[in-house]
Structures
1.
Amino acid sequence: MDKSKKIKYVGTAIKIIIVLFSFGYIYSKVFDEMEKDEFKNLSPLDTIGESMGLFSLAVLMVFLNWGLEAAKWKFLMSRIEKISFLKSYKAVLSGVTVSIFMPLKMGEYVGRVLHLNLENRIKGAVLTVYGSMAQLFVTVLLGSLSMFYFLPKMYDLSTNMHLLWYYLYVVLALLLNLFMLVGLLNPTFLVNVINKTPLPKGWKKYFRVLSLYKPSALFKDVLIISLLRYLVFSFQFYFCLQVFNVDLPLFDGMVIISITFLFLSFLSISALLELGFTRSAICLELVHVFYGSNFSQSKITDANVWQASTVLWLINLAVPALLGALFLYGVKIFKSDK
């Protein structure tokens, strides 16, 4: 067997392993959750059937969610490789497939750059990380603002100590958001910071690609799209909560969701940790604080929040991951993998 055929078989084997890992992880985690005693007698399909219109809207928004991400990634790749919107969409879903089981969501970068030409993949990974940082900034910004509103509900700010901690949080949050914004809108600043790190010189050269983008373009085509995408998946979560009878006022509901995403952004080391139980545990605690002593009268249970969170995970991550597996078939992992 010649070398090119061996490489082709190795590439095919890698793609099969990725797909099997993704399918296996999704299957095992979902059914592990559903086998828990407190959730065995639930009938989520019946509940969904009672609010089919709202649920259908949440499902349709999945395409918008990943479509916005595809548009952002297409723009970021435009300086190194011209790709179509469809190819960008396929790459984004492939990233979801690989990120399901890889730690620190590294699979998101790996799965996407496989759709690029081999010589552009490292630069593409750098730009993908930049796009993720932009999305993280929006999450931190809106989560921080929501905390400004929510903390007074958790603590009595009439005491000097609580008030001091509140002001300290406000100052630190503002400084963090300002630092992130300056870094994101000033790529040259980022490149200079990276140049001063102990990274090997051979690695540092790939970060220079960031300086090819103007701040105005980054604001319009990256940060604004990140904000729009954030609003889409926030409303998806709100609609899912409504479907499963977690009736929260719109403003307070979006505040709770923003703080939930803020905590998830720091806790999640893989897409699996965003599964319903993790998300619902955070959200439920916030709902408890919102209702206070009236929680027992609200008719909201752990199961309500868990079902909403799990359904959101299924439609926003699990199903796209399964679709992304199909798009991995045609990618070329190695140069001679034809």
2.
Amino acid sequence: MKLGLPFAIAAAIVIGLVVMALRDDPDVVMPEPVVAPAAEPAPEVTASVPKRPAPLAAETADAPPDSGLLDDLDLMMLLREYGFGRLEGEWREWAASRGYPAFDQAGTQFYDQPYEQYDDETLRGLANNGDMWASQILAKRIAKTDPAGAIELYRQAAMRGSIYAMSELAGLYSKIADSRREVEFKAEPGALEQIYAMRDAPVSPEVSGYAWTMVADMAGTEPMFGNIAASQLSRRLNDEQLEEACTIARGMYDELRAQRETQGLGDFNRTPPPLVYWDPSNSASCAEENEGPNLDLTGCRQVEVSEEGQTNQIWLCADPPS
């Protein structure tokens, strides 16, 4: 798994991973997020304001039951009612609003302006003026030559609401902690000096990386992918380090919120994606009682899916099918 890119933005991949998570080992290898153009255009969504989902209609031969546990076949039938193309389109919009770049079929990122054609000075000027995309694009560009500078730029993007930047921070700290990855920083001697200093710092890169997955959780990441990233990082930490990471995460989250308030941005946007999957047995959180995703699920349609004796929660937050 590539920790810096934990989301699979295309809804077809998202739905496939949900079903995979119900069937297979939770430590799945996540694919790169790729948004490929659909073979057919997605159905147009006419409702511009989210509406509270209506109750399930009475059970029919072609619809899943309206009460009790669903199995994965029932789930796929239910998702088909909502429309895969429609869920894909809404997922893309939600991911982009959290800083996740879109990809074309060739794997090339694309944006609403040619950021990747800008030189570093132009990107830095845009970043200093509050451009979230410029901050994280420049951070990615300089991560191997100036990791400390990249961390600061990702923090700026995170403050602006980029969950993607938080996941990139977790991934970058993971690389910094891994001596096998030093070759990636050898092009610039100053970069190696930075990573050695970070390894010798009072807070280890492993702890910092896990802390950023927890900041993303507090800010409203999609729990399935956030938990997989956190689970893989947490295996490297003992209980004392996990508690340290949570303490750091709470402080960073409060600091980011305070900065957002100062700049008139308000709290983080916890509007959920169209599909939210939560596995309580594989969830990671710094909350004393981890009762569910840190998202505003008001109006979402909650269903329980049973697989091999385990019950998992899924929320459908797209507008209900008409």
3.
Amino acid sequence: MGILTLKSRVFPMSMIFLAAMSYGAVTPLVKLAVQSHIPVEWITVMQYPLPVAAFLLLTLTVLPRRGPKLLTQPGLIVAIAVAAALTSLTYYRSIALVPPGFAIVLLFQFAWMVPGLEWALYHKRPTRLHLIAVVGILAGTFLAIPVTHGPYHWYGILYGLAAGLGYSLTLVWSSRFQSEGSPWPRALATTLLSGFIVVLAYQPWRLSVMPHSAWIWGSVIGIFSQLMPIWIVYRHAPSLGGNLTAILASAELPVAVALSRLLVSEPITWHQWVGVLLMLGSIAAGSLSEPSTQVY
């Protein structure tokens, strides 16, 4: 699994940026679903059936060629599935308990969590430009959030931080996949297992009757939270590394801010635009840095 030069990294960086834009649509869509009186539990559960079905069909297309080598690194797949389930279970809860803008800030603590995890788990020290980009992204994050008033439930804050940790682990471990493997079986396995964990956690058979529109909202959210970004990250993160993947994934917030304005009519102040521009500049600067160095 080699790290590419800057020129050869342009396409995978563009794809990770696209995955981040997809994730950015999730927050305003969840807001709209909650405003439509869809319980968070049903939103979380129903985001999985469509992506699982799509990944199953795509996996069947590579089955004749892959044979017994269809699925590799099973331990890593289980770890990613658990981390992804943690993110889904906690982030949507956080949105319901604290102002959505503050929930995004809590999730975006992955900007420093990912370099910390890369260093702690794999002895990969971030470059100076990486660290500058992280500081710029965090500063831009706080500027870009809307000014809202409470309530700020303490367990909503814990949910948001847990979501940031789960997202960080997902990014770090996704970058450890062997680049030559097919993304479809990995996407199917992690999405199916992650959905299974969510179902066990929420036990939908004990919930209130599912609203008919939960299928629609869950499927739309699943396209942007699971179907589009997962295969992109699994395909391209291994060639970029965890630190650069996290920097590019930060494009999620500018997209969330813009879509919140378009979809739910949230006003955007001048300091939010400054934060968005600061984040985009930091993402661009971080993408120019050399790969992280490995120390022992």
